[in-house]
Structure formats: C-alpha cells, structure tokens
Amino acid sequence: MALLFSLILAICTRPGLLESPSTVRLVGGSHRCEGRVEVEQEGQWGLVCDDDWDKKDVAVVCRELGCGAAKEAIGGILFKPPPEKGQKFLFQKVDCKGMEDTLAHCEKDEDVIDCSIDEAAGALCVNPDSPVFEEVRLADGPGRCKGRVEVKYQDQWSPVCKTGWNLKATKVVCHQLGCGRAILAQKYCNKATQGQGPIWVNQISCSGKEITLQDCPSEPWGKNNCTYDDHVWVECEDVFDLRLVGGDKPCSGRLEVFHKGVWGSVCDDGWGAKEDQVVCKQLGCGKSLSPSFKVRKSYGPGLGHIWLDDVRCSGKEQSLEQCKHRFWGYHDCTHKEDVAVICSE
Fold first, then answer.
1. Is the pLDDT of residue 188 over 70?
2. Which of 184-198, 258-272, 274-288 shows the lowest per-residue confidence on average (mean pLDDT)?
3. How far apart are CA 240 and CA 242, in angstroms?
C-alpha cells in the first residue's frame, strides 16, 4: 500500500502537471490582454522563458485572463518598462496543447532555467474590452477607393482619428476594400468632406500585413481628444477592368486595362509567365498557354494610352491590380511593346 501511495504521489507531482497556486498577468501592453507574460508564485512575479513558446501557449494565457482569442506569440522584451532588475524566470519550455484552462495545467520545466532577460515570453490576445467594428468604407470621395476613412459599429458610421495613422494603415484599407495600391494618406479633411458622429477609433497601429483594419491594434474606443479636423482621408488606386482584344476569342489578344474611363495598353517590360497567369485567372480564362513572341505580336500594336509598365506579379494574385507596377501612365515604351496574352479557355 505504501509503495502504491508513493507511486501515485510521484505521478501526481510530476513537474509541469501539478496545478501550482500561480496567477498570470500581461505587462507593458496597451491594454490588459497584451504584454510580457509574468507569473506569480508565493507573492513574487516571475518571467516565462520563450523557449518553445508558441501560439498554443498564448491561447491558454488568453483564456486564463478572460481575454479573447490568441493573436500572436512574441518576445516580451518588446514591452516597456523592461523586467525589474533581478526578476527571476519561473517557467521554461512551456508546452501547452492549447485547450488547457490555465498555464499551470501545461507541461513545463520549472527546475532548470537558463534564460536571459531578452528571452522573456510575450503574448497578444484579442482585447474583449474594445469592441470590433463591422465594416470599413471610404466616404465622400470620387468612387469607393478614395475618401474619408469610416468604420461601422452597431449600424452607425464613425470617422477614424488621424493619430497614429500612416501609409501602412492605408495599405490595409485598400486591400480590404479590394482596391489597388495605397497612394495617399492625408491626416485632415476639408470642411466639405468632414464626417459626423462620434470618433471611436484612435491611435490605430498597422504593420501593413494585416488582412483587415480590424486586425490592427488601437487605443480603447472613445478615449481621445480628436475633433472633426482630425479625420483621415486616404486614396487607393482604382480597381481596373481587363480585356483581351484583337483575337478571335475573348481569352486571347492584346491586353488592355480600363482607367479613368479609357482603355489603354500594357508595356511588356519584365512581363512573363507569372503575369500571364494572373491575367488569365482574373478573366476566368483558365491557364496561360505562354505564347511565343511571334504569336504575341500577331495581335498588332494598340493606340492611345499606355497605362502600365514594369508590372511584377508573384503569380498568386487574384487580379492584376494586386501586382506591383509603376504609377498609371508612367512608362518608357512604344506600342510595339504592348503585352498580348493567350489563355487556355
């Protein structure tokens, strides 16, 4: 019986599986659901080493704190102020499955800690204390790809404050709205284009890689000193249509794009198989057949504007407007260099 009790005790007290009396907090973030991970044991706050630290571990921290979903596992050194001098590491090599209720339920090493301060773990969770707006639009502009930035929450549209806004945030909005490249981020609106209603969103901070503006962190809603002179006006390149002309089928011919109400051609500088692929995909014409130079030129030169030059695609874009290119109308080409494309369908 004594041997059985000892065996049970050994299993139950295996390091990392015992729910120790600890409390977790996030320090140094812009809200309570982001920051450097710290754990309290016996009245002292200690650090967690970022060895093997990943999004599953962050998910558990977010759940324990009553925050939203996990957004990212990042370095705790990014949050200020830095850890207190002499602050110890309590956990290393945390290995959560992602479904645990607390960090104490996860397997981890609490015995051998060999981490430096710059290896402290950090976490980003969705902030449940800040509401998430439903839609984004560009208002009072010439078309849907230029205008004052507004967000919709509970069926009411609200302007966004200029504080923190930059071209990276504009890039996210342009992509979210299905427009072309970001070309202008202007931190004021004239009186004719100023918005109405409460200003909820302030100090928005985008990296430029977010899918939607909702993914960018911001200050708590409504806590700002912004006025109607502080609205944001942005401009994206307009969405443009494509067509293939000069051939006997709609899926082969000289490429033309529609801009400012006018059809114009595309210069073949740097044009290749990836660019062909994007055009065929956008037109719903199957795959590119990669025609020879002679076949391409059989469709003849275009007339009028040469709208695009130096187009560069990765091949993964859904439309040509998502590829890199010069600004509209800037080129060093003649119509002898017009692009032609032949697709399988």
1. no
2. 184-198
3. 7
Please give, one letter per residue, the 3-state secondary structure of 159-207: EEECCCCCHHHHHHHHHHCCCCCEEEEECCCCHHHCCCCCCCECCCCCC
Tokens matching residue 172: 């996210």
Q: First and final CA of the chain: distance in angstroms?
A: 79
The structure tokens listed for 305 are 């504007």
Distance CA 270, CA 268 (A): 6
Amino acid at 81: P
Q: What are the phi and psi torsion angles at 338 (to 5°)?
A: -65, 140
- 43-71 in b/e burial notation, b at 16+ Cβ within 10 A? eebbbbbbbebbbbbbbbbbbbbebbebb
**Matching residue, tokens 């719903």:** 284
137 in helix, strand or coil?
strand
Q: Is the dihedral of CA 28, 32, 34, 37 positive or negative?
A: positive
Q: What is the dihedral of CA 48, 53, 54, 55, to 10 degrees?
A: -10
Angle at 185 between CA 175 and CA 203, to 5 degrees: 90
